[in-house]
Automatic annotation (TrEMBL), chains A, B:
One Gene Ontology MF term: transcription cis-regulatory region binding
Lineage per the UniProt record: Bacteria, Pseudomonadati, Bacteroidota, Bacteroidia, Bacteroidales
Domain HTH lacI-type: 7-61
Alphabetical UniProt keywords: DNA-binding, Transcription, Transcription regulation
Protein name: LacI family transcriptional regulator
InterPro entries from the UniProt entry: HTH_LacI (IPR000843), Lambda_DNA-bd_dom_sf (IPR010982), Peripla_BP_I (IPR028082), SBP_2_dom (IPR025997)
PANTHER family linked: LACI-FAMILY TRANSCRIPTION REGULATOR (PTHR30146:SF144), LACI-RELATED TRANSCRIPTIONAL REPRESSOR (PTHR30146)
Domain of life: Bacteria
Length: 356, 356
């Protein structure tokens, strides 16, 4: 592209070998055009780095759109705060195109709170829903209902197979457990044991995502380190006294512990235990670069963190919804986030990085 | 922010506790405002996720800007192709604001080509220069000259201390060598040796960046693995026969090689040698996720790759120039890219990831 040169319909017609009328019909989504011609024009647009003239069309159309997001509520420093930041950032960017976002929340420790939020959403007037489908059955019914209403649904953070969703944005969970095992086990001997922590929440079956991470982790062990033994410990959400006792038993020297892992974002609790009890020779794998986790990564109690760019899960999810609903562009169905590996030596450059 | 609500000067004044007139002067960069008030307003803008109304101002102003980029020319699949992609992407985004980018190239294997390109740039009419300062002295003279002309200069990929640049976008090189050593040495025993490959280019002193990576690597070894020995091998750019001979000598069994590293993007050459000679028990660290490197990472000849999001180096650099020149916003001086660690188990999710 030369400086000063704008791409015209004529340019596109010339390069694609089609008529200006056909190009115009495709760009404005009207009239009938063969799939073959559409594909040709799409290819040409890509080659020319064409962007539809959003400004002109948004200023002339005056149509407004509303998307609704539904994610867990959170305390400062929690995982979901980052997801919420991504929503804020995209809101600021798309408001000028008359596209608005209404943010809703539920209590992730209370199934009933999720059920009510979903019931409200079923009848809400909007052009798209972006949400975290934390409970499978309710989410399946919801997406079916939204399909009837022709309102697209985008999943973030966890995915439900066989549901009618437009797109999913989140980590490839099985693989993130598998990679976690690889990085952790580089530092563990065959005669040492691995502690595998889970957190049980009342009235909830385990989150799909952490279960898949666990499967990936165990799959790596059985493939590459079959001689290593795993000891399972079930912590209970909201019961710190019990958990303290369970950790004390688990890290007993007689257990010959070489490593520990927890698949949700609360590795900082285990790290805190290791620090208070001055336990030095255990390598700990955790998930998500929360400030509290990063603190213990830098201090050495956490050995490696796996992160998944939570801010971009929501940012990309809403941008995809925008592209689909407003710009009528196709959207990828499954959009995996990268599996980012953080040691104390590279974590700062990851968390301080600012995308322009 | 509620749906449908636009942020007004009144909102900002109310929240910051300053007058609407003061807010207006700051937003439009005119008149005198105390640093304290400016800071207050900047903080308020951040809290409100304020974006200046780019559309209105670009449509009304009709002013055009030209930035010039200067990077090495490349073959398909080379490192610099990714940097160039980032330039293309940002060009497509900012053209609608009447900001254009002229792309220039030099031959990185010919110092004279860099000198001439810089000479041409010194007198070019433009509003900003984004370039890779591959040779120190010439780049220092150039930035001083541009400072006289009041044209801002942004460095990408490598940095020159004491030069007058607006901003730098690239990897923290020392630290990326240091982290590389950590990941590599997890797989190497104390009685094994490490091959450290360099590539000499005629008429060039070593690139600043690879030298710094090497320093970081050796610093980690002397700190944590003082018993491991390093064997240095100097390959020659453009002399494959000699290099084949040097690699044959280096990987001789009598050298008891446990690991190898090369700090530029050509690990694939060493991986290719390992594959052809069926050498299995050497772990190899390379830099940059070129397709050829990723190929050998997946096959197993390369054990770990460190990547640095080259597309975002140029993308962010030009966006920063845009923010500074067009929007009159302050810009961070040093902008380090993350140090991304890639194993065969997570590389696909990294290279296939698409930022919306």
């Amino acid at each position: 592209m030369n400086p000063g040169k704008k791409i015209t319909i004529k340019d596109i017609a010339k390069k694609s070998g089609l008529s200006a009328g056909t190009v115009d019909r495709v760009l404005h989504n009207r009239g009938e055009v063969s799939e073959k011609s559409k594909a040709k024009i799409r290819k040409t647009l890509e080659e020319l780095h064409y962007e539809p003239n959003l400004i002109a069309s948004s200023l002339s159309a005056k149509k407004t759109y509303l998307f609704i997001t539904l994610i867990p509520s959170y305390n400062p420093g929690d995982y979901w705060e980052e997801v919420d930041k991504g929503i804020d950032r995209v809101m600021a960017e798309i408001a000028k195109f008359n596209v608005f976002v209404e943010k809703r929340y539920f209590n992730q420790f209370d199934a009933q709170s999720f059920f009510s939020a979903i019931d409200d959403l079923e009848n809400a007037e909007c052009n798209g829903v972006i949400f975290s489908p934390i409970l499978r059955d309710k989410s399946l019914i919801f997406t079916a209902r939204m399909k009837q209403r022709q309102i697209p649904v985008v999943f973030i953070d966890s995915q439900i197979d066989n549901a009618d969703f437009l797109a999913y944005f989140g980590q490839p969970s099985f693989q993130s457990g598998y990679v976690g095992a690889k990085t952790l086990m580089l530092q563990v001997k065959d005669n040492q044991n691995v502690l595998l922590f889970r957190t049980l929440r009342k009235g909830f079956i385990g989150a799909n995502q952490t279960l898949q991470r666990q499967e990936g982790f165990l799959s790596y062990l059985s493939e590459y380190r079959p001689n290593v033994s795993v000891i399972n410990i079930e912590l209970q959400a909201g019961n710190p006294d019990l958990n303290e006792l369970l950790m004390r038993q688990a890290f007993d020297v007689r257990n010959n512990v070489g490593a520990a892992v927890i698949f949700n974002s609360t590795a900082y609790n285990i790290a805190d235990f290791l620090e208070r009890n001055d336990i030095q020779n255990v390598v700990l794998l955790g998930y998500d670069s929360l400030e509290r986790n990063v603190h213990y990564l830098k201090q050495g109690q956490i050995s490696v963190l796996i992160s998944q760019r939570p801010e971009y899960q929501s940012y990309n999810a809403i941008k995809a919804m925008f592209n689909y609903v407003v710009l009528k562009q196709p959207v990828n169905h499954i959009n995996y986030m990268p599996i980012d590996l953080l040691y104390k030596e590279n974590v700062d450059f990851y968390t301080h990085y600012k995308q322009y």
